[in-house]
């Protein structure tokens, strides 16, 4: 059994300055003010359109991120409709195989420390799930049958592609203190990275 923290990977090289220049060029079509474009004008322009609520302009750019989280968190992620998803399938993945280390991988629940009695109960439960999953496969069950005992804590990989407007919507909701703690855990570090990579677009989202 393996226990890991949640993580993510941006699946493309991001040039934040170039993204802003493209959005500015597209956005200025609305105002026919292309003549105002300079080497330094994009940040102020993007800030202006976001402040005015003209967020449809930033839909022209998208980002794909692979998120490694537990199945429970992934169930919340896919509720966002304006997105494309590709997720690790428990129907086809046979975790008793060598390629998976012949073991299950779980996401550590961030609300318990490893010394807590609640964590000990969780850990023991995950050990029993792994033991019985492997046993079901050994007795001839198909992965799509054995998966019926897999818990929300099972690690999953899900690739999420959203345009920048939807990423803003997603991160506003999912970094809120009202969000589920594990959902907020991964969303906050994604937001921090996107603020580093793309100027202006995410700066107004405060955790």
Provide structural commentary:
The structure is a single chain. The protein has helices at 16-31, 42-52, 71-77, 117-138, 143-146, 164-174, 181-197, and strands spanning 2-4, 7-10, 62-70, 84-87, 105-107, 155-163. The protein is α+β, with helices and mostly antiparallel strands and 207 residues long. The chain has a single domain (1-13, 62-207), classed as Gyrase A, domain 2 (2-Layer Sandwich), CATH 3.30.1360.170. Helix 1 (16-31) crosses helix 2 (42-52). The relative contact order is 0.21.
Q: Please count the helical segments.
A: 7
Basic shape: elongated
The proportion of residues in beta strands is 15-25%
Q: What is the total number of structural domains?
A: 1
Helical proportion?
40-55%
Poorly predicted parts: none
CATH class: Alpha Beta
| Sequence of strands across the biggest β-sheet | 2-3-6-4
The CATH architecture comes to 2-Layer Sandwich
Question: What separation lies between the terminal Cα atoms?
Answer: 33 Å
How many distinct beta strands? 6
Q: The biggest beta sheet, please?
A: 4 strands, antiparallel
Estimated structural class: alpha+beta
* Overall pLDDT score: 97
Radius of gyration: 21 Å
Reported by name, the CATH topology is Gyrase A, domain 2
Oligomer: single chain
**Secondary-structure element order, as H and E?**
EEHHEHEEHHEHH
